[in-house]
Amino acid sequence: MPRAKIAGIGMYVPEHVVTNFELQKYMETSDAWIQERTGIKERRYAKRVGETTTTMAVEASRIAIERAGTTAQDIDFIIFATLSPDYYFPGCGVLLQRAMKMGETGALDIRNQCSGFVYALSVADQFIRSGMYKNILVVGSEKHSFGLDFSTRGRSVSVIFGDGAGAVVMQPTEEQNRGVLSTHLHSDGENAESLAMYNPGTHANYWVQQPLASFDTAEIGEMFMSHSMIDNAQNFPFMDGPGVFKKAIVKIPEVIMEALNANGYKPGDIDMLISHQANLRIVQFVQQKLGLSDEKVYNNIQKYGNTTAASIPIALCEAWEAGKIKPADLVCLAAFGSGYTWGSVLLRW
Ligand code: UT7
């Protein structure tokens, strides 16, 4: 049975750099607070008009496809991970298919937020191993800047997120020392509302009463997105930051150990850890727990903030471009986030 290898990788971040100081114009915050709590110095914001989650994905995909030595027309399946799609539906996969003039290939959208790329890679891995597809484009892309609360009310969420895209092309390989060794996926919906964007949605407060919108005055046809939701800023993401933090620092090391144990490795065997870039403090905690030296962990949250589904492919791409990942290196990818969902991928580069 063949393994799935990353045959090509690409990334795209918008030109517009937004520093912590710039955010002070819109909300009560400070460069010191943001750097101390998250490690973030700046992030990128896409053009408000003319740049979308899908157009950023196109830029990253073009590079990944070229580096894989293939063409958009030869891609036989698309997997697109995002929480900030161009449309509520249809998903970005078909928009990417159209924009890149691909054939009538299948296009699957993954809605797993921070762990979206890890889930997407796992699906691609299975399709390659089974022989179903031979050239899968896997993308993570986010345009967060379009949907954040930039008032002081939303500061604990809005300072963290940034825009960008990353993509890989997965192909089969018979090489002994190459490819995805295993993937491990998990979920626990107990805290589904701890990191969520409730509206628009069909919940009508079924799961939780607070801090969700009031539906008292909603008329038929107004339930999905009502004026009161917008008036009360209930169309923005909500996050119990400390709650997510506490869970992440347990679950990320756990799922990395699961991957290592499944393959007979120890933390010291990892050549490069690429963790979801949610918070530099979370990654440093994971690094410390696993006893990894600085050169075995790559972080770029300082420059891009948290780009959710795009963060792992962007960091992986930069680390590879910088020569920090070499052929046959043991690379571990790990993510935790909204859902909660989390997972890891262990691969030989
Ligand atoms: O990728 C998805 C997964 N997400 C995560 O993994 C995020 C995990 N959580 C975190 O990264 C951190 O919890 C945050 C960075 C979101 C927040 O850091 P924290 O150290 O947990 O701060 P906190 O939420 O406990 O807030 C501490 C204080 C509060 O003020 P009081 O109540 O102590 O007076 C906040 O109102 O900091 C205040 N605060 C801010 N101050 C300045 C919150 N946001 C800001 C801000 N600027 N942007």
Task: Explain this structure.
The protein has 349 residues and is of the alpha/beta class. It folds into three domains: 3-173, Thiolase/Chalcone synthase (Peroxisomal Thiolase, Chain A, domain 1, 3-Layer(aba) Sandwich), CATH 3.40.47; 179-193 and 238-348, Peroxisomal Thiolase, Chain A, domain 1, CATH 3.40.47; 198-231, no CATH class. The protein contains eleven helices and 13 strands. The strands form four sheets. Strands 1-7-6-4-5 form a five-stranded mixed sheet, with helices on both faces. The chain has a four-stranded mixed sheet with strand order 8-13-12-11, with helices on both faces. Strands 2-3 form a two-stranded antiparallel sheet. Residues 29, 33-34, 37-38, 114, 155-156, 159, 195, 241-242, 244-245, 248, 278-279, 282, 306, 308, 337 line the site of oxa(dethia)-CoA. Oxa(dethia)-CoA binds next to helix 2, helix 6 and helix 8.
Q: Using DSSP, what is the number of strands?
A: 13
CATH homologous superfamily of the largest domain, by name?
A: Thiolase/Chalcone synthase
Instruction: Report the span from N to C terminus.
Output: 18 Å
What integer value in Å does the Rg equal? 20 Å
Structural class: alpha/beta
Topology pattern, helix = H, strand = E: EEHHEHEHEHEHEEEHEHEHHHEE
The 3D shape can be described as globular
In round numbers, the mean pLDDT is 95
Query: What is the C-level CATH assignment of the largest domain?
Result: Alpha Beta
Helix fraction, binned, reads 25-40%
Largest sheet: 5 strands, mixed
State the strand order across the main sheet. 1-7-6-4-5
Bound compounds, please?
Answer: oxa(dethia)-CoA
Proportion of residues in extended strands: 15-25%
